[in-house]
Design brief:
The protein is α/β, with parallel strands linked by helices. The chain is built from eight helices and 15 strands.
Length: 341
């Protein structure tokens, strides 16, 4: 009898911890500084052939105004069984805030919700975090453009479907809602709009112009005979995926270079300057250490950078080779340099 009870309990826990396939959701408690104690749902669409031994790509899908995550993921569920993104793909979509903010308005309500969603996906499924794509339709496309450019390091590429930027002026960054177009050179972007979408065709064309002006690897597609909706069939999605994969390596390498450091003069007679490349400066906690050629720490400081530059007096050290190591919560960068006295 005890064995039967144990086996029944074992089966219960096995079933409870098994990964769900098809459409499912998980509730999360989510807070931002101005919007505490939010209750959200994170939706997943997982192919019925899910294999926990394989790593899966993730396509984050942000829905448009008036839609809901479950219905939106179901509409795109065919992507999980096609070969467009390869054989292993999971779709993910979070709830909007209670103000139906379009994931961007009011500012602050949705900050970090995509990070929470990806974290929940990693708890449930075998996720390859190097292959997370961000997409959105209409208001969701506007949010994907904003979030993707701000947090480009987190995503392999952007797939914008008739992004509903609120105005031509907004697309030109002439309002308080700003797009970080300069980061476009670090992430490939597919930007699609319907030829019959009279409201957003000129606005999305201006987004295209802005991205091109900053050197973005962008595929701009005006789909014939299409209004304000997502493209039918598989052609656009296949071309978009191929475009992202064809450009992701080059732009990701450029992004890596942008978060490096430079030590100069090198060689140095005793005083050095450590210059942080632009994107590493955004972190609040920056730990800088210097090691000698024997691996002994000879200098350490937290922060102390002024306009991205730290001056260090190393006149007390003998000539030789040293290593400057700069660490943030997300990156560690190093450079070898020489003291020559």
């Amino acid at each position: 009898m005890k064995n039967l009870i144990f086996f029944s309990v074992f089966l219960f826990f096995l079933k409870a911890n098994a990964q769900q396939t098809g459409l499912s959701s998980v509730p999360v408690n989510f807070s931002t500084s101005g919007y505490p104690n939010q209750s959200r749902n994170i939706f997943f669409y997982v192919p019925s052939t899910y294999n926990a031994s394989q790593k899966y790509k993730v396509l984050i899908c942000l829905h448009g105004q008036g839609d809901d995550p479950g219905s939106y993921l179901t509409a795109f569920s065919a992507l999980t069984t096609s070969t467009i993104f390869g054989p292993y793909l999971i779709l993910l979509s979070p709830d909007e805030g209670t103000s139906l903010s379009g994931f961007c308005d009011p500012p602050g309500e949705d900050d970090g919700i995509l990070d929470v969603a990806v974290a929940e996906a990693k708890k449930k499924y075998n996720i390859d975090t190097n292959y997370i794509y961000l997409s959105g339709l209409s208001q969701g496309g506007r949010a994907a453009l904003k979030i993707g450019l701000d947090d480009y390091k987190k995503y392999r590429g952007l797939m914008l479907l008739t992004a509903a930027c609120h105005s031509y002026s907004e697309a030109q960054n002439l309002t308080s809602f700003m797009y970080n177009y300069s980061n476009g050179k670090y992430i490939p972007v597919c930007n699609e709009v319907g030829a019959l979408d009279n409201q957003y065709l000129p606005i999305d064309t201006e987004v295209h112009n802005q991205l091109q002006a900053t050197g973005t690897k962008e595929q701009f597609v005006v789909t014939p005979n299409l209004g304000h909706t997502n493209p039918n069939g598989s052609t656009f999605y296949k071309n978009c995926y191929n475009f992202i994969e064809g450009n992701a390596t080059a732009v990701n390498e450029a992004a890596e270079e942008s978060i490096g450091i430079t030590v100069y003069p090198n060689p140095s007679p005793g005083n050095i300057l450590i210059n942080l490349h632009a994107d590493i400066q955004e972190f609040e906690h920056i730990n800088t250490s210097i090691y000698d050629s024997q691996g002994r720490k000879v200098y350490s400081v937290v922060n102390n950078y002024l306009n991205g530059i730290l001056g260090v007096d190393l006149n007390y050290l003998p000539s030789g080779f040293y290593f400057a190591i700069v660490s943030t919560p997300h990156y560690t960068r190093s450079q070898k340099f020489m003291l020559n006295k």
